[in-house]
């Protein structure tokens, strides 16, 4: 199935090259066991030890220039039509292959804005300059960031199916967590419980196991992107968890929020419910405006403003990111125009994009309210891929 | 233990910076979940989502400039003394931190020659040029390849201990394979047996599971760097397997060779034994000359010539590579001066380097004879870390 997925994306890439009027796109790598260009899984499906070039052209041709020891493996992977093995140096094959394409533009994976389009190392870039110093190819080098944003962003039906499967399995695990939570259990114990389920079911974690899941209980927790601690759940805590899995190469990324009733409480305190409801409503408002042609900062601003108008601090991150093979995927980002996000918040949203929507706010003395849903942008709006959390999950003491 | 290992290597890095007269070394990364600079595990031990700079100075100071959401995590990792969190852009902190160091040279992870010193992407390099365009820092950028080669190559006593442990566990698994092999079993079944043992024992594979282990039985097999196939073991086959594991972050990489007796045979045919013995002797001869100050191509040539003098084709790869956190580690390589190896075959071998020695030859009509051992370079020679295979392992039909 991975081979079919890759061929589907290569086919899509050729169409995008036509749309962007770029003749060839080259992913140039080596020692992918040490560091992998993030595009490799999507458009190649093989590893490389020695310098290797994977070329897709506007007319749909594919060329793999690889070390000769990897010829049999590349054949069995079966994703590239023309395979050019070399023994001592890639220069044995490189000039002829490129000459046969006669490109006017050569897209390479470098980008200031997008890490997913930035798999070319600076050393390999210098190597290309040196190899082609007596040609005019270096003048034709352009960034592949538009290609990568389109290709990763516009999910094919098979990709959406895989993402939905990852979401469904993730929500099942959240349900089991709801049964597991009780006072006295630590953040670390919750994380271990979740990771054990993931392992038992043969899934992978969507991100680093140090903070997948992230679990936060009560006030003054460590904050997003921190690992779980020995802090124990207590009555009166808001608990939230950020968690995702990867199945067949595709990710989920979701968050849910619980409240632990104190003895004598039948319902959460009014300020907890209010904070939670502001989060839910901010998601509704943002999703309502999410459609092709919008820019991500516009959607981010809707949720951010709504939360601030309601008297809470703005969240210290973007409202949402794309999800796919990578948990932070695609180009366009639902984020504020902060410099650390580069140009991603001003890229146009496209049909087929899968985004998280994940606002956050702090309820003083109780904890952090967050909900993270996943949505698919369609031709004139968006649909929720995850069944929404619209009410606080309640844990009895 | 990982924290102590990292602090040990940071300390060693500061000494190497003094030796190379470089004031500061900066590992500049982002979205390490998508692509990880290969130095990150050794000298940082944390992930980064937003642009992050990890700086080690000649006087042993360490600075981490990171997104504010990752502050708590970085504190709990505990490997960097000075942590500078930023909210909207790394420029909030970058200039002041570098100004406080006033470096004359700034080593960055880019290298044409070494993938392990080439973790800086071209996009992030362009980002640094832009950020520092009004300063003279860009003129001070130098490649970190000498630092990386020294730091990864000169193993500390704790690193050697971990590598020895990985080797010992690998050899135990080879012993079980010897008991498992028999005619009718396929290469894929052998690989599945091995991967199952690795999983049961809680180890990781040292490289991609598609060809870890690589298993080859009989003549005309797919060749190195190919995955196992449905080809079945038959009497009269030479079988060989290339396999390594990772324990606590450190790798092994070993190969062993078996011969399957035909009905009526008490011993392997003379040409099989002869080919195997040429491999063993080529390892002995190469190891005898392996010592600090030599260059890798000299050692490669000893084994390569010996095999050719004995009437076999030369092997289509280097004689050996360094091993450590990465299965292809360090700088200096025991390889021929082929262009695809860059300058690595001419780097000086140093005490503390751990190398594989892995010659290969084809015995016509029987299969491939390979043995891969691991050695540690000491002050005036080298010692074998793996118990050597000096005789063919025999499988009865």
Automatic annotation (TrEMBL), chains A, B:
Q: Which residues form the Peptidase M24 domain?
A: 162-378
A single GO molecular-function term is: aminopeptidase activity
Tell me which SUPFAM superfamilies the record gives. Answer: Creatinase/aminopeptidase (SSF55920)
Q: Name one Pfam family in it.
A: Peptidase_M24
InterPro entries xref list: Creatinase/aminopeptidase-like (IPR036005), Pept_M24 (IPR000994), Pept_M24_MAP (IPR001714), Peptidase_M24B (IPR050659)
The molecule here is called Peptidase M24
Identify the species of origin: Melioribacter roseus (strain DSM 23840 / JCM 17771 / VKM B-2668 / P3M-2)
């Amino acid at each position: 199935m991975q081979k079919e997925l890759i061929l589907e994306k290569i086919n899509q890439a050729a169409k995008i090259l036509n749309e962007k009027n770029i003749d060839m796109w080259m992913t140039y790598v080596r020692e992918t066991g040490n560091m992998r260009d993030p595009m490799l899984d999507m458009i190649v499906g093989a590893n490389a030890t020695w310098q290797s070039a994977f070329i897709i052209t506007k007319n749909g041709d594919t060329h793999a220039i690889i070390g000769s020891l990897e010829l049999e493996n590349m054949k069995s992977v079966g994703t590239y039509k023309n395979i050019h093995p070399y023994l001592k140096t890639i220069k044995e094959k490189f000039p002829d292959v490129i000459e046969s394409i006669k490109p006017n533009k050569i897209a390479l994976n470098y980008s200031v804005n997008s890490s997913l389009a930035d798999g070319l190392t600076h050393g390999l870039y210098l190597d290309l300059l040196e190899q082609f110093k007596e040609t005019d190819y270096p003048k034709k080098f352009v960034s592949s960031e538009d290609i990568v944003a389109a290709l990763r962003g516009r999910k094919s039906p098979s990709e959406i199916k895989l993402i939905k499967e990852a979401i469904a399995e993730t929500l099942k695990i959240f349900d089991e967590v709801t049964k597991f939570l009780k006072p006295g259990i630590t953040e670390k114990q919750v994380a271990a419980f979740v990771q054990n389920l993931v392992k038992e079911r043969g899934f992978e974690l969507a991100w680093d196991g140090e903070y997948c899941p992230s679990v936060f209980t009560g006030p003054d927790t460590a904050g997003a992107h921190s690992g779980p601690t020995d802090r124990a759940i207590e009555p009166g805590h808001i608990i939230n968890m950020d968690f995702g899995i990867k199945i067949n190469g595709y990710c989920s990324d979701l968050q849910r929020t619980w409240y632990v009733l104190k003895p004598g409480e039948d319902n959460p305190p009014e300020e907890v419910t209010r904070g939670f409801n502001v989060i839910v409503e901010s998601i509704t408002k943002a999703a309502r405006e999410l459609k092709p042609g919008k820019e991500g900062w516009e959607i981010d601003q809707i949720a951010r403003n709504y939360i601030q108008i309601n008297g809470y601090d703005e969240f210290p991150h973007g409202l949402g990111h794309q999800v796919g093979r990578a948990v932070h995927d695609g180009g366009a980002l639902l984020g504020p125009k902060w410099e650390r996000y580069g140009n991603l918040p001003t890229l146009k949203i496209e049909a087929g994009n899968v985004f998280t929507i994940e606002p956050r706010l702090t309820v003083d003395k109780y904890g952090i309210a967050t909900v993270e849903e996943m949505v698919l942008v369609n031709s004139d709006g968006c649909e929720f891929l995850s069944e929404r959390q619209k009410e606080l999950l309640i844990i009895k003491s």
